[in-house]
């Protein structure tokens, strides 16, 4: 969990405690507030300690229980600030993947310099339509969200137009394992690997592959994008983290630079992709 996100959640918790302690008439105990809201007392404690993220409904109930319903708008404003840093998939994907792709399209349109790391699958910016379609189907099944793969694929393909913008630069590193993961039918992966060999020739793209046999200074963990060295977007299983606190961004830049030390480029990267392609044919 990112430090800036947790600090924001704790700040909301302190504000909640302030409302309870300063309830009109007399100070409320956590047990009294819980009874009014119909909660277990432990929930009040978790919210105030920043150990649980409140929903908008929780905040309305908390403010009302403290006799200060007018504070609900302020509290929900603080929640929106928190959710600008962590965006749960269950909320983002309520209407499908297309909306999420459109948000990423706006980020790509505004930025000029991109540094990306992906250990598990081909980077979205380099995916073929069939490969992207397979990914969207899998994640919709996992999250139990609407299947809108076709609309999501179209949005992702529009983002790939930025690869041909001469004002932008994409520095992408992938682990060799991403070239071998059968998250899609073999024929789809074969076409995807062919697409990667073409990407190596783009003047806007620097594509590095970290071989499975390479010595690593750090584990090849979660994938992420760094935009203009100012914002990081990280995808986890439950949420997407948006990190913009300078110290945390620097951590991701160091991580990216450290992983890059193990990557190979040009003809060497081409050879690894071709080897994965040949191995796929031989299966």
From TrEMBL:
Protein name: Transcriptional regulator
Annotated organism of origin: Streptomyces venezuelae
Pfam families named in the record: DUF5753, HTH_31
SMART domains documented for this protein: HTH_XRE
GO molecular function: DNA binding
InterPro entries xrefs: Cro/C1-type_HTH, DUF5753, Lambda_DNA-bd_dom_sf
HTH cro/C1-type domain boundaries: 16-75
Superkingdom to which the source organism belongs: Bacteria
